[in-house]
Amino acid sequence: MGFLKHKNSFKISEISKKEFCRDSLCPQDYKELILNNSNTIKLSDIIEDWYKGEEIGSDNYMKNSNFRFLKTVNVTKSFLYNQTSIEYCKPNFGKEPQKNDIFIVKDGAGIGLGEVALYLNKSEFSDYISAGLIGIRINKDKRYYTLSFLKSQHFKDYVNVNTAQGSTIRHSKLIALNYPVAFPTTKNHQETKLIEDFLSVLTKNLIDKEKQIEIKNNRIDELFSVELNSKLTSKINYELPTISKLKFGNRLDTIIYSKRYFEYDILIKSYKNGCYFLSEKDIAPGRTPKDYYYSSEKKSNKFFQWITPKNVNGRSLDYKTYIHTKSATKITKNTIVLNGIRYVGNGVFIDDDEKIFSNQNTLIIKKFKDTDEQIFLYTFLTSKIGKYMQMAQRNFGIVPILYTENLCKIPIPKFDESQKRKITKLYYNKVNSRDNYTIDNYLELELKRNKSLGIHQLNTEIFLIKEKIESIINKIINEDPIEIEF
User: Fold this and answer.
1) Would the pTM of this model clear 0.85, i.e. be above it?
2) 111: number of CA atoms within 13 Å, CB side?
3) At what angle do helices 153-161 and 455-478 cross, to 10 degrees?
4) What's the CA gap between 395 and 406, in Å, rounded?
5) What share of the chain is helix, strand, coil (3-state, %, to 5)?
6) CATH top-level class for 4-181?
7) Is 167 in contact with 174 (CB distance < 8 Å)?
8) What topology does CATH give the domain 232-270+275-413?
9) What confidence tens digit (pLDDT) does each residue in 373-406 have?
C-alpha cells in the first residue's frame, strides 16, 4: 500500500515550508505522508555513523582488483545488497563500509529512489560506495527493527515526498536521515517490546532465507561444473570453427565460437551419459494479452500474476506484479519461464495451477511431464554454464534476443539419478513449518529449517514474510492492534 495522501488544497504559507518547494506549484510536492503514531525517533538519532559515497570517474575502473565499487543498481527489492555482479576499481575512494551497514539510494529515478539494502562484506575485498548511496550504521539493538521500516513503502514514500521532482535523476540529499521511525505503542500491544522483537525476528528470518538462496544457487552451479569436469578423460583443445560448423550455426558472430563456449559444448557432448537438445515444439514465446492492464498489487481475483524479465532475478522472483485480462494463458503447472531478452538464463519454475501470464520477452518451456526431470532441466538452463551458452546464442541487435531456434542448439547433459537428485533438492524441497513457535524459539527453529528448504520454497516464503512485515508496519503507523502470530 501507499502512504501518501493527496491534498485538495494547501495554504500559500506551505510553499515556503520545504526548501525545494519554494515557488513550486507542482501537486506532487504537496502530498502528505500518513503517520498517525507520534512515538517516533529520527533515524539520525539511532545510528552510530553515516557516510556518503563518491564518483570515481571512468579511468578508475578495473577488470580485476581487490577493490570493488558498489553502485545503486545492486540495491534491489531484496533485503541484502546484491553482490552477484560487481564492478572493480582502484583503491582509496572514500570510507569503506563495514559488515551490517545499510545502504540507502539517495539519488535515482522511478522506483529506485529510497531503496535500501543490508551490506554483508566479502572479506577478501575492500569496497567503496558510489555517490548515489548513503551508508549508515544503526545501533545494534535497533538494527533489524529499523531495517524493516527502511525497506517499507512508508520510507520510500517519505523520501519521495521530500525530494524535489526531476525529469531524470532526483537527488534526495540527506533527507533519509530525518525519517521518523515509528515504534509500537500500547494501542498496538500492551507489551510494546514484544512487537519490536516480533518484527526483528521476522526480518532476521527473511534475511537468512535470502542468504540460503545465494548459498544453494552457488552449490547448484558448483555441482554442474564438478560433475561435467570429473568425467572428462582428456584435455580439451580449442579448435577454430570449420566451414561445416559455421554453416550449422548459420551465424558469423564470434561468441558462439569462443574458447569458453567451445569448452562447455565439448564437456556436455562428451559426457558419459550423453546429452539431448530441446526441440521447437517444447518451447513457445510468452504473449502479452491485448486486453490487459497492469497493477503492482492483486486488487481482486480477476488479477493474475505477471512475469517479465524485470522481476526475475537468477532462479528467484524479485517482486510480484499483476495484470487484469480475460485472455487464456500458455503457462501451466511444471512450466519453465525463461527470460528471452538481455540477461537471458534467468527464469522461474511454476509448480502450481495458479493462472499466470508472461510477456512476449519470455520463453515458455514444457519438455517433461515428470516434475523432477523438468526441474533438472530448469536448474541447468539457469546455471552458470547454461546461462553463458544462452548469452552466447543470443541474436545481437538493439536488444539482444534469444530465439527458440537458438535455445534448441544448446546441449543438455543427462545426469545419473543420484547426481540429478542432489541438484533438484537444492532447488525444490518442501519442509513443513512448526506449529509451536514462540517469540523465543522462532528464529532458531527457522534458521535450521531454512538450511533444508529448496530455493523455490525459500523464495515463496520470503513473499509471505514481506507481506506480514508490511502489515505490522502499517498497524504500527496507524496504532492498530497487533497479534503475535507466526
Assistant:
1) yes
2) 11
3) 60
4) 8
5) 40, 20, 45
6) alpha beta
7) no
8) Adenine-n6-DNA-methyltransferase TaqI; Chain A, domain 2 (3.90.220)
9) 999 999 999 999 999 999 999 988 778 899 999 9
